[in-house]
Amino acid sequence: MLVEQSFAYRKKINFSGYNSPNIAEAFQVLSEHCTRLDEINLAKCLWLTDKLLIPLLNNNKKLKVVNLNECTSMSSAGLQPVIIECNLLRVLKLSKCEWLTSGAVDALTLHHSNLVELDISHCYSIGERCLIIFFRMFDKLEILSLAHTPSVTDYVLIQIAHHCPKIKHLNLIGCHKISDLGIEAIATHCKELESLMIQRCPNVTERVLGRLRGSVHIDKPRQFNNYPLYDARIFLQV
């Protein structure tokens, strides 16, 4: 009874990285008795399935933080209770969840507009059109990771620039389709930007990054390739 009561009043659970043989059975007990959670961290739980997760979500409809990064054994159906029921959701992390579809993102667009942090990096099943519509609804976003998401283009960045002006931290590592055009839009409209992760984006140059340096942390070192090199002898008086 003491253990069950402890579970009943618990606000947070963190199973991140736990993959022991009996963890699924323990999680079922937790799901049954935890009813007041506002934060769950289940990142890298390879055993986590829709069948295990849905009861926990159904018993905790006031969740504010949901971290499912690298939960590869699920499907988009497991996310449905979060989308439909968790109206207080503020943070959603779904990195490397290849099961995340455009349909699930469309549903998220319809039911949530108060997210302040979103991680959908390494999500390969989401289309460009889906992201363009999605970012028109999330004007409160402050932290956004789109690293290695192939459908991220300049058009997506332009939508972010115009509709997500509160962005402070933006991760675009490995988004090879973006260029100076999209980053210039971000630089112009996202005045609260504090950090920009932009490595492995070959079409983004110092022409636009130079405007941000000094006020924004940029992970990509300054490139001097665009500047002419002069023979040092010109400057020497022999």
TrEMBL record:
CC annotations in GO: SCF ubiquitin ligase complex
InterPro entries: FBXL15_LRR, Leu-rich_rpt_Cys-con_subtyp, LRR_dom_sf
SMART domains associated with the record: LRR_CC
Domain F-box/LRR-repeat protein 15-like leucin rich repeat: 29-193
One GO biological process term: SCF-dependent proteasomal ubiquitin-dependent protein catabolic process
Highest rank taxon of the organism: Eukaryota
Matching PANTHER family: GH16156P, PARTNER OF PAIRED, ISOFORM B-RELATED
Protein name stated in the entry: F-box/LRR-repeat protein 15-like leucin rich repeat domain-containing protein
